[in-house]
Amino acid sequence: MNRAVYEDRPPGSVVPTSAAEASRAMAGDTSLSENYAFAGMYHVFDQHVDEAVPRVRFANDDRHRLACCSLDGSISLCQLVPAPPTVLRVLRGHTRGVSDFAWSLSNDILVSTSLDATMRIWASEDGRCIREIPDPDSAELLCCTFQPVNNNLTVVGNAKHNVHVMNISTGKKVKGGSSKLTGRVLALSFDAPGRLLWAGDDRGSVFSFLFDMATGKLTKAKRLVVHEGSPVTSISARSWVSREARDPSLLINACLNKLLLYRVVDNEGTLQLKRSFPIEQSSHPVRSIFCPLMSFRQGACVVTGSEDMCVHFFDVERAAKAAVNKLQGHSAPVLDVSFNCDESLLASSDASGMVIVWRREQK
Description:
mainly beta; 3 helices
């Protein structure tokens, strides 16, 4: 977010983005409970059944393109409209399970990480593998994220406790773009401007890094021990949450049977616990997200998977009874959740390989 532009806005202006009116129109003036009332299942994808699907993601600013990766070693690209929803193509090449993947900003490429110690770059249009890049440490790769401003750079985390900034055009590690954590790196997230990176490990720590936009160099800034020995399995950053909560925030899953919301208190990524919400998570790599349009509503909603086989919605601004909705339909722990751009569809994936697409109730 451009701070100068934000502060130049007239008093009473609540939305610091140029897409404000369109997004506010999509959000509507309905209550939070109405907005997150889902009418039921829109579609069930079972092409990866029997192996966990650790990650499911809608394409950026897209309503109907969805991808998911599986521990069976493949990635599926799916199209939800026109009906019936279809699997467009399956990306194969990794020799072991795919742990994570990310869409580029323009959705033309995907990057994936695998337990086979490689990352792969894929063309989404035809599914071909553009490049295979071995991990610099020959270690299992466990997570990845694009640098939000420069999609030529991708950050990966591995099982030898290292974070590496990789140039996907050259296939090389960026000089000065590596750092060691206390454990296996399970989660990564940039802030929106791409200047701060957070990384979480399986020992319960979250590290913040300053990211040099010109060189890709990482500088370790802060460390927070969420809970000693509790793996941090998901980190989501949000520059501002809602009209009521202007602070930058971080949403964290750790194996604590709680979803944790932190306030980012300075430019070095220092975190201060704001709220926690009860979920079941003691051993699985469960993930959560901020809802994309919630900045334009009263209240602010987050969604998380859970080991109780449900998808949970919480209003982070509600003092009591924060639970807004719960979706039941999975028969295994829910590992990941993803909204499309207008929140009309929500996808969730589970430990048995099932992906459910839920449709929001139409008013």
